[in-house]
Design brief:
Strand content: 25-35%
Order of helices and strands: EEEEEHHEEEEE
CATH topology: Pnp Oxidase, Chain A
Oligomer: single chain
Number of strands: 10
CATH architecture: Roll
Length: about 220
Amino acid sequence: MALDGFWSDKSIEPKRKYRWVLTFNGVPQWILKKVAKPQITITEAEHTFINYKFYYPGRVEWNEISLTLVDPVAPDASKTMASLIRSAGYVPPHNFLNANNDNGPFKLNGRNQASKIYTMSKQRAVDAVGGRMYIQQLDADGELLEEWALYNPWIKSVNFDELDYESDDLLNLEVSIRYDWADINPSIKDANNFNPQSRGTIAGMSQTGDFGPASNGIIGG
């Protein structure tokens, strides 16, 4: 078996950085250039005794990830990002009076106040990007090797790049995604049918969580 071998064994294949797909609402896979995988930080508590220090693990924190995508003429990635931000509840100041009524200013109630003022909410921000994001890594045959699910993701920042008369480069957008937590799909086995996932289950919960079956590189919903 390859697990007992070495790099000289032709069946041992490393995961490759360029074999991956990711998509979210309104953004096709083929315009993405780069994505950071999830990163964990574990906080710590410190105890000092005389001239000694002892450390204890605390809470798990999931750091935000960054995406880089090209901005084609069509589909227009800049307009897509702006649309997703508006879908999260953002109303530009010049549209404030028209946000509640397409035909004119806010309808006023008896207290002479706007009947509705729209602001951003977590539910709208998460729904804007499709509710969940999946990062899928593939093998040489396009089969699923690894899958990360990001729970409750939302767009935290968008950098629309810069213009430069001296440059022939493509325009790129830099997007930061905040999420509550991530999980790696434990049901995907390696080429030798070895599954290192051996955790137990909590009563009433599936061992594989919310992951669907492997889908040959096709993004889940």
